[in-house]
Amino acid sequence: MDSVRAERPLLIHIGYHKTGTTWFQRRLFVPENGYFQLLDHQEIFETLVRPYPLAFDPEEVAARIAGPLARLPEGCVPMLSSEILSGNPFFGARDCLLCAERLKTCFPTARILITIREQIAAIVSTYMQYLRRAGTLSPQDFYDARVEPGYGAFDHRHFQYDRLVAEYRRLFGAGDVLVVTNEALATDAMAVATEVATFSGAALPRQVSSTRVGASAPEAAVGALRLVNRLRGGPASTATLVDLGAAGHWLHRGTAKLFQLPPLRRYAAGHRPVLDAARIRYAGAFAESNRRLVEMIGPTPGLSSYEGVSMTLLDAVSAPDPSRQGRTPAAAALETRRS
Question: Which SUPFAM superfamilies does this chain map to (predicted)?
Fold first, then answer.
């Protein structure tokens, strides 16, 4: 493992959830673009996240990836990509630092890619994912996180990105941590792909598809989906009346699709109860964190739409500095051309 890592450093993409991670994994991080994923999402969970803290063994991790490393295609960057490495947002991401420390122990010279998204949009999408996993709480109850002592729940502070970014910069060094926004990905997927390639040492990618992967159900379907979720089990299920098994799964999918068809599509477009609840609940909650993030990593594309990020602030830190968030001079030049 050391000889391969020395030749081409491991790239680790930790998420966050709902930041285009599926697009990265299916569209960009493939051998055709110069990347080789050593473990899939389930394997990463079983190998790096799930093990009990007092029984975690880095040697077992090394043994698990030895086989994939031996099959590493020539010219490819070895990598891991799973949003679960940033923590489980349904339970307040209480494991985010544990994952960071394990990654540092197992892969001390890795390069870290962190993808983020404007917080309100990310929180809305997280709730919709909670419904997909059979949750039944209303948006307000989900956000309020009223649970019994000792049980985890949603915590909006997980989306104060500067905290986790700062921790990874401390562990791996600022020069080996790159932050990319979902907004930049939506605007110019090829530019993001080129930036990640420059950072990771991969060959510049061929044309990549910008087609969205894994869109959420319309928010207007929330009430119906919560009712349907009482008829199926799932990871977030707490109030199942009758588990219909596969039938409940298809009922959930059919209900979501129904709100994407005429005549409900027009109603759905103007009915955003989850967004409305999040805007009220978290007004002002991320401004200071976003300002700290900009001061830390510089005027990264896409951050201008984040709460608390003004053009005055962006101008104040506008000088390209490759060391600010782990960019090579070529990547810094790319950012200057895009801006």
Answer: P-loop containing nucleoside triphosphate hydrolases
Stated as kind and residue range, the H or E segment containing 111 is: strand 111-116
Measured CA to CA, the distance from residue 273 to residue 264 in angstroms comes to: 15
If you ran DSSP here, which 8-state letter would residue 320 be given? -
pLDDT digits (tens, 9 = 90+) for 95-120: 999 999 999 999 999 999 999 999 99
At 253, phi and psi to the nearest 5? -65, -40
Count of structural domains, the chain = 2
72: Cα within 13 Å, side-chain hemisphere: 22
Structural domain span for residue 224: 219-280
Q: Using DSSP, state whether 60 is helix, strand or coil.
A: helix
How is residue 40 written in tokens? 């899939």
Q: Which residues pair with 37 in a beta bridge?
A: 79
Q: Are both 158 and 230 inside the same structural domain?
A: no
Strands 35-37 and 111-116: unpaired
pTM of the model: 0.90
Q: Is the dihedral of CA 296, 183, 145, 242 positive or negative?
A: negative
Q: Which of 280, 306, 324 is the last residue of a domain?
A: 280
Looking at the fold, whether 46 and 120 belong to one and the same domain comes out as yes
Is there a single domain that holds both residue 66 and residue 161? yes
Q: Provide the pairing of β-strand 177-181 with 35-37.
A: unpaired
Which of 301, 331, 337, 327 has its CA nearest to residue 173?
327
Whether 158 is in a domain gets the answer yes
Residues 6+ away with beta carbon under 8 Å from 139: 127, 222, 273, 274, 277, 278
* Cα 198 to the center of its chain, rounded Å: 20
d(CA 108, CA 314): 32
256 and 181 within one domain: no
Q: What's at 42, amino acid-wise?
A: Q
CATH number for the domain spanning 36: value is 3.40.50.300
Q: Which residues contact 319 (CB under 8 A, 6 or more apart)?
A: none
Q: 236-295 pLDDT, tens per residue? A: 888 888 888 888 899 989 988 888 888 777 777 788 999 999 999 999 999 999 999 999
